[in-house]
Amino acid sequence: MNKIKIIRLLIITISIINLILLINMFNKLNNEKGTKIKYVTKNTTCTWDVRANKKDKFVFLGDSITEWYPIEDMYGKDIPIINSGVAGYETKDILDRMYEMVYKYNPTKVFILIGTNDLKYKENDEDIVINNIKRIIGEIQVNVPDTEIYFQSIYPVNKNLEGNATEDRNNEEINRVNKEIKEFCKINNVIYIDMYKILSDSKGDLVEKYTKDGLHLSTLGYMKVTQKLLAYMQ
Known about the structure:
By secondary structure, the chain is an alpha/beta fold.
């Protein structure tokens, strides 16, 4: 009789263990599952398989180019992205609001795109922009040390379009700032994403179909950026 009870107990124990293993396997697959997004424009159809773990929290930090990023359309509703962009912001504005824009979210990854608004004012020389970007990165590293930092190079502009919004920005300055920040990122454990290269034409100007006004991005421009960023979000 005791042997029968022992056998029954073993069967129940094995069944419980198998059930736990199945639940863990399901949760792992659920955490790693991809969200397929089909994005359609007038001339282009893209399907992206976006993968994110449930623990992930991505902050996109920047100015109007970030604020107007149609994130839900590009990535879907299930990808944990927080849009922390504010139109008109310069580097100094972000430095004044680091807690509200970054720290309080305790992100796993932060994607920074800032600096173009600084360059539209002549009183902001390149050194000010470069130093402020370095401060933004440094303060994130100190205050949320487990956050991975990705810096997008300042996007090119196109001054050749009618009614452009580039003002005093120019690609020569943008390239010089990008070069300095790229070197800084290399020695400070920050991933530098060269968006300038993929958004510019053979002359170094922002590709016309990627922009609405020579500065801000069109839908196709945002699609190009999204395709690049996905590699760092998976």
